[in-house]
Structure formats: structure tokens, C-alpha cells
Amino acid sequence: MKIQNLAVIFIIIVLPISIILTSYVQSQVKTLSLQTEYDAKLNNATYDAVKAFQINTINSDSSDLANSKLRDIEASVNSFFTSIANNFNMAGYNQDILKEYVPALVYTMYDGYYIYSPYTNTLDGKNRNEVVVDEYGRIEEKSDAAILSQENSNATYKQGERLSGLKPYIYYSCRYKKDDNNDVVITYSLDNYITIQGIIKGESVFDYGYLLDNIEEVYGSIKYRGAVIDGSEQLKEYLEDGKEYTYIKTNGVKYYYDIYNNKWFSILNGQRYYTDERFREENSAGLQYYKDAKKFKERIKDEYELDTWVTGEKAIDEKNNKIYELDKEGRNTNQLKLGNYSVFDFGSQESNGGSIEDPNSNFNQQRLAVIRYSIEKNLSIAIANYNNYSTNNPADFRMPKLKEDEWEKILNNVSIISFLQGLNIGGKVYNGYSIITNNKNKEVVNEESIYMITSDGQYHRPNDIHIKNADNITQGVLNIDFEIRSATNATGQYVYFNTKRINNSTPYTGCYSSIVTQTGVETTNNIYQYILNGNPNSLLAQKYYTALGRERYSMYKTNNNLEDIKKNFLVNN
To answer: Crossing angle, helix 539-553 and helix 285-298, to 10 degrees?
Structure first.
């Protein structure tokens, strides 16, 4: 056979294959390009949602209250959908269409989380919530379902209507049962604060507090890890009128002392509300934090004896079954999901190199495991149920497997998890998710939330190597207190201002190598051990621990009894 014929045969065979391969490669490149593009758009929309939540909470004086928090989250949800619609507008998707591809949004908060997803409005026809009086003055009861039915043109509620919104708040809780006389539910949080409720030694118990080791009282002073806690801090801020005020903070509310009127006031929605209560100008919140934690530890160990039996093996689910790991097919592996170790592993630095508040403690491992289990379980249900609501999207919605480093971000920060599934990107269907954390908020005070002020007018991260043994540290401050605030002044003018200033005109500035580039920051996942390895009696240790305790003690919590807390700050108490 002539070589020309062989060439023709080769071309006939190879050319179609080459064309097909080229087309396939181009298709794959286009698919990967679209996936990367969609990932970026989803990240941008999630970031916009986080930013909206952060701005609203920082500039709201009532953001700790439940109804205000719901308002801020709903505004954040709106920002997400507005942003994602703008990002996908060129691709031909509008906001209503894109909602069909978002099975869930998750907002992880301090002691629980919200899931935004579809739900069905239902109302029990036997429920009696409205009383009607007829013309003769007789009470005529009607059911909610009858009053608010589809036939009622004035009803805002429609029975069986499918809506999208925030589902009820889910706490990071786990039930532990030893026997009928010892059965408790422990609610965890994003730090070492817990709530205990149930039966202990046959008695009903409701208790709460921060779990801490290494607190001692020496000659009337409270020491934490060797550092003396300052019980008489002076806290000051500048407000929108340019004047400096002494303040104390309790239950999430700041009270400022007006020296001209000799009265204290709080601020709500830009308005000053004066009170007849008189507070001490020396702030003792940091000291009280460690005092209460010491007493709480004593109740846990000596009174409740929870350290002797609360383990992952005693954890049970809503059906009173032990909690086991499941395989890919959902079958029981007989391996405990929450481990089998003592949760309340109180110890000392000398004995085990750590304490219950350290990241590697048994308590923290259990806390993270419970939070993860709760989110995984309820989020999987929410996403799976979305298949029953989606009408225009044929995709099979499923919970994706998140990576370990992604779970680490979720379990230690206020965060938003967004999902976008079912979009056609050519060679496959897009199934993406985004996780954006928010470490500047009023919701949680973690170890990284405290910045250190130095006398040179700068603020630093606590693990800045330049201040490890510095003698010019003046105070520890919550990071969001350095954010620019907005308000309306006395003349009705909208102004922006810094509350933390060296004087009326010069705000504190972030150390460039510490706050911006972080090149001067020593990497550590345990700030307690970092300070201990430096100098436990240093100025850094004292100021940092005092500030951390002060800000945590001053947070708003649903368990707080405001009157009892105020007694620690009022004059003559």
C-alpha cells in the first residue's frame, strides 16, 4: 500500500478523534472556568452578607436583643440575595430564579444557629388563640385556622403556604444521662461558657458560667495563671459630641458618666437615656469574671460532681439512643460520635501542660464535636427537605462534605455558610458552598478579640512579638471598639467618629506589622500557653487577662440577671 494511502487512512481515523478530544478539552476548560467564576460570585455574596451583619451589629446599640438580632440577620439575608443576583445578572439569573438554587443559609451565633430555608406555614385547627365577643357580649371562640384561612381576604397568614425564612434558633446542646437521678442538658457556646439544666442527684438544677482553671485568691487578690487581675480599671470613650466619658459595660449595655449633669446614661438608637442609678467609675468586670468562674468550677466538681460521669458515652439523642458514627450508607458503625472521655477535665498546668480552657482540652474537643454534630444533622435535614420545595430545579440537593479546616473556622467564629446547587455549568452541575467568618462582632469575645493599647498610640494583637515583655501596655480593648461609629449629633448632623482616641483629635492606630501585615505576630493556637511561655507575671498577661474577663463578663446573655449583675457596679453595693 502506498504511503499516500496510509496517510489518508491515518487522517480519516485520527482527525475525528482529534476534533472530539479538542472539543472535550475546551468543554472541560469552560466548565472549570465557570466553576471558579461561580465560586467567586458565591464568596462575594456571602462576604457581603457578613459585612452587612457586622455593620448593623456594631452600629446598633440594641443588637444583642433577640428581636434586634433577628432584624440584623434578616437584613443580612437580603444583602446576600441582592448581591448574588447582581453577581449573576450577566448570566441571565435574577433573584427569584436564584432562590431556587439556594437550599440553605446558616448563621452560626454564640450559643446556637439559625438556618434560613423554605418552610410550610401550618396551624392546628384546634388551636384557640383568638377570642371574639358577639353582639350580646358572649364570648365566641374561633380557631386560628378558621380565622386565618385562605378564604379570609384580610389574612396575612395562609394555611399551607410555602415561604422562605429563618427557622427557630437551635442551641449547641447535648443531653447526658447517667441514670434517672442524673440527667442533664448542657448547652455549649463558641467559648468556654456553658448552661446546665436538668436533674443532678435527684434535684432540679439550672446553672451557668465560664469554665476556667488556675484561679487562686492570694491575700485578697485574684490571680489567673499567675497574673494579678485588675479590679479597678478606668474605661473611657469619646462620643459623637467630641467629649470623653467614663463608662462601664454590663449585659451588653454601656453606661456613660455625664460629669456636667452628674448622671449616668445609656444610648439606644442614637438617643441618650439618663438613669438615677449611680455606678462606680472603677470597672471591676474583669475581676468579677474570674471570681464567678472560680465558684462555678467548685459547684461543677464539689456539688454536682459532673467531672465524675459526664462523658461522650453518656450522650444520647432525642430518641434516648447513644450517638454513634454513621457510614456513607447511614449505617451504625458502633463508634461513639462524641468520644468517651471526661468532659470536665479540670487539671493544672503542672500536671498536664494545659487547662480546661485550652484549645486541646477534653472540654473543648467535646464542645466542638457537639456543635459540629448539631449543625451537620440539622443542616443535612434542611438541604434534603429542600427537594420537596424546589419546583423549577430538578437537582438532587445534598449536604456537601466540608473539610476539616472549614469546620475549624465554623466552630470557633460567628460565620455564614451559604449553599448554591443545581446550576448548569456545561460539563456538570454546579454544587458550591461558601464559608465566611466574622471575628468583629458583639456576639462573641474569643481570645483573638482583644487588642493591646500601648502608650505610643498604637494597638496590637496580643501575640505581637514586640510587646511580649513590653512595659508600655496601658490596656486591653475589644477589637470592635476601634471600628468607626456613626451617629447623629446634637445639631442633627450625621457624623462618623472613633470612640478610642489618644486625645479628642487623634485616634489610636493599628500597628502595621501586627494588625495589617501580621509579619510581627508569632503564630500560636494557644494564647494562654504563649503568654505563659513568655512571662506569666508580665504587664501583657495582666492587661490581657483582665480585658478578656471584662469583655466576656460584660456580654449580653439570655441567662443574665441584670439586677444581680448591676449590684457589682452600683455605688454603695
So the answer is: 80
Nearest-angstrom CA–CA distance, 450 and 437: 17
For residue 410, the SS3 value is: helix
Which whole number is the average pLDDT over 208-220?
A: 90
Residues 6+ apart with CB under 8 A from 297: 211, 212, 213, 215, 346
**Which pairing describes strands 473-478 and 458-460: parallel, antiparallel, or unpaired?**
unpaired
Cβ neighbours of residue 555 under 8 Å, at least 6 residues apart?
64, 251, 252, 442, 445
Q: If we measure between CA atoms, which residue out of 443, 377, 449 comes closest to residue 414?
A: 443
> In the structure grid, which three cell numbers stand for residue 238, read together?
469619646
Q: Is the dihedral of CA 220, 222, 227, 228 positive or negative?
A: negative
Q: Residues with Cβ < 8 Å from 442, sequence gap 6 or more?
A: 57, 58, 63, 64, 252, 480, 555, 556
| Residue 205 CA, distance from chain mean position | 27
Beta strands in 180-331 (DSSP E): 182-187, 193-200, 203-210, 215-218, 221-224, 227-228, 236-238, 244-250, 253-258, 263-268, 271-275, 315-316, 324-326
Q: What's at 361, amino acid-wise?
A: S
User: Which residues fall within 8 angstroms of residue 475, CB to CB, at 6 or more apart?
Assistant: 233, 452, 453, 543, 547
DSSP notation for 488-527 = E-TTS-EEEE-S-BSSSS-B-EE-IIIIIS-TTB---S-H
Is the predicted pLDDT of residue 163 greater than 90, yes or no? no
Give Dmax over CA atoms of the chain in angstroms: 113
Can you say whether the dihedral through the CA atoms of 381, 387, 390, 395 is positive or negative?
positive
Classify 526 in phi/psi space as left (phi over 0), alpha (psi -120 to 50) or beta: beta
Q: What DSSP designation does 333 have? A: E
Contact 193, 212 (CB under 8 A): no
Q: Which helix (H) or strand (E) holds 486?
A: strand 485-488
Task: Report how far residue 242's alpha carbon sits from residue 232's, in angstroms, rounded to the nearest whole number.
Answer: 25
Q: Residue 22 and residue 42: Cα distance in Å, rounded?
A: 30
Q: What is the pTM of this model?
A: 0.85
Is residue 76's pLDDT more than 70?
A: yes
* Residues 6 or more apart whose Cβ sits within 8 Å of residue 104: 115, 116, 117, 379, 382, 383, 386, 417, 419
Specify the pLDDT at position 405. 87
Q: How far is it, in rounded angstroms, from Cα 175 to Cα 314?
A: 8
Characterize the bridge pairing of strands 509-510 and 458-460: parallel
**What is the spatial distance between Cα 298 and Cα 102, in angstroms, rounded to a whole number?**
47
What is each CA distance from 51 to 40, 54, 487, in whole angstroms? 16, 5, 19
Give 314-369 pLDDT, tens digit per residue. Answer: 999 888 889 888 776 667 777 888 888 999 988 754 444 568 988 888 999 999 99
Cell numbers given for 547: 480585658
